[in-house]
Amino acid sequence: MQKNIYFNTASLNNVLIWVISFIVFPLSKFFVAIKISANYLTFFSVLFTIFAFYYLINDNYLYFSLFWMGNIILDFCDGQVARLSRKVNKTLFRFDAFSDYFKLSIIFLGVGIYYNDLNVWIFVFLTNFLHLFFVILEKNLYQKIKKKSKNQNHFFINYFKTHNLILAMVKTVIPVVLNVNGHSLLLFFFLPLSIENCIIILIYFNLLFLYKMHKTIKLLLKQKI
Predict the structure, then answer these.
(1) Which pTM was predicted?
(2) Domain that holds residue 91
(3) Cβ-count burial of 13 within 10 angstroms (0-12 exposed, 13-18 middle, 19+ buried)?
C-alpha cells in the first residue's frame, strides 16, 4: 500500500476510503482518457441516486443497490478525475459538495417513505436535521479556522510500522468509525433490510453528528471574531 496524490486526502487515515479509492482508480483514469469531466460524473451520480430513491420507495432492493453502488463509484471517481485532469474546482460553489447534501437527504426521505413508520420518520427527521446543521458548522465555519493535525496527514499504513498489531488496528479503525465520509455511504445498503437495522444505523449517524458538532462548537467558542 502506498499514498496516491490523486486520492481524497481522507484516504490517508481512513482505510475504507483508501480501499474504495484504489478499486475505482482505473475507472477514473479511463474517464480521463475518454475526456469525461468530473462535473459530468457528479451529475450522473445525482441521477443514479434519484433512480435509487425511486426503486427504494417501490420496494426493489436489487435495483436500489445497483444504482446506489453506481452513485458511490462515481462519487469517488469525480474527485479523482478532477485531480488527474488538473481541473480541481477552486471556486466557492462546490457542485460535488452540494450534490452530496441532496443525495443524502433524498435517500433519508426514501427510507421514511419505504417504511412509513412513525419511529423511522422521527429518526429520519433528526438525522437529516443534524446532518445539515453539522454541514453548516463543518463546512462553512470549522474548515476556515481549524488547523490540520498531524493525524490528518498520517498515512494509516505507517501505524503498522511503528505500533504493535492491536494498537495499529485500533488506530486504523477509529477514523472509520468516528467520521462521516464517502465510506459511510456503504451503510445505506443496510437501511432497507429491516426497521431495526434502519433505526440502529440512524441512531449511529445521529450520535456521530452530535459528537462532531460538540467538538466543532467547542473549537468555535475558543475563537474570537
Answers:
(1) 0.87
(2) 9-221
(3) buried
